[in-house]
């Protein structure tokens, strides 16, 4: 699942509304909207606060997002190696 899907699942399982999350983190509704649409992601400190609130690891929140980044890194690394062999 993506960060936004994980966030929604955890928020609902803890019976919290989107407004409650925005108030708890002192963020605007639009900022939260960007998170839930995967337009932007929470900064590291907010990720840590979310993890603490939901009693999970930061890695659990970002699980698939991290896999995507690792895949991008592997692809980039393959291109660099191929270029260096030219």
Automatic annotation (TrEMBL):
Domain HTH cro/C1-type: 7-61
A single GO molecular function term of this UniProt record: DNA binding
Domain of life: Bacteria
InterPro entries for the chain: Cro/C1-type_HTH, Lambda_DNA-bd_dom_sf
Signal peptide as annotated in the record: none
Protein name as annotated: Helix-turn-helix transcriptional regulator
């Amino acid at each position: 699942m993506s960060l936004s899907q994980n966030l929604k699942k955890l928020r609902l399982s803890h019976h919290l509304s989107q407004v409650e999350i925005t108030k708890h983190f002192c963020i605007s509704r639009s900022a939260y909207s960007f998170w839930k649409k995967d337009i932007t992601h929470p900064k590291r400190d907010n990720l840590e606060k979310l993890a603490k609130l939901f009693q999970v690891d930061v890695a659990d929140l970002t699980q698939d997002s991290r896999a995507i980044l690792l895949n991008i890194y592997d692809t980039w690394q393959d291109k660099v190696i191929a270029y260096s062999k030219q």
